[in-house]
User: Fold this.
Amino acid sequence: MSREQRFLSRLILVLITIFCPLVVPCAYVELLKFHRKYNKEIDLLRNQTDI
Assistant:
């Protein structure tokens, strides 16, 4: 690897290390919003598969 490639690799690694703890909780909050919005439909589908 060239010096420039190593620099870019380290830069990307640092950015992922910083932003991953921020992105994952945001994605989980969006998942919770979706689940709350469609809770009745999800329960209905779960009950249909139990039959």
In short: The chain has a mean pLDDT of 90. Residues 3-37 form the longest helix (35 residues).
